[in-house]
Write a structure and sequence with these properties.
- The protein is mainly α and about 50 residues long.
- The protein has one domain.
- About 90% of the residues lie in helices and about 0% in strands.
- The chain is elongated, with a radius of gyration of 20 Å.
Length: about 50
């Protein structure tokens, strides 16, 4: 494998990860799961405080 192939392979992996993260973030924002996730975590913390 020459250097050019190695560089291309690494760049493809990095770009794939970045694109996947962007797509996931877009879906979460579009569906509102990010807000629901925050609410669920906040509710869980509240319950934990009350149970102490």
């Amino acid at each position: 494998m020459n250097a050019n192939q190695i560089i291309n392979m690494v760049i493809r992996q990095v770009m794939r990860r970045l694109v996947n993260k962007g797509v996931d973030a877009g879906f979460e924002k579009m569906t509102g799961s990010a807000k629901n996730g925050r609410r669920a975590r906040k509710a869980a913390r509240t319950v934990q405080r009350l149970n102490r």
